[in-house]
Amino acid sequence: MSEVEKRLNELGCKLPRPPAKGGVYTPCKLFCGGKLAYVSGCGPMIDGVNITGKVGLDVSLEDAQTAARNAMLNVLAVLKATIGNLDLVKDCVKATVFINSADNFYDQPKAANAATELLVAIFGEERGCPSRSAIGVNVLPGDITAEIEMLVELV
To answer: Considering the entire predicted model, what is its pTM?
Structure first.
């Protein structure tokens, strides 16, 4: 078991199976000689349980935080499926967090924090705290509450 997976266990987390592709794309693309990995957008569905709806309308901030955290677990599952071992993550470079938001919801960063706080808890502040955008959108595929894409540097 990798050190990252041991840390996940200590946090009471388990990586899900990587989500199935929802279209014509690559879930994770390695580039720059395999030193960088771009993980395509992942939603919050884990073990058939999804979180859907607009934050500020029919979804609470707390549920949006769970959705963002679950989406990040799916990002990590895709990354692990591609590189084999999450201990190869040198730096979580950039995360883009999309939040399905009602017109009067302005706390997207609070929802996104749950995802980046998970990264910091797993990888530590230096490796795990990415630059980040938290973007409110009026719709996401399947009405999911959160979607995350991420750029990672590998050793």
So the answer is: 0.97
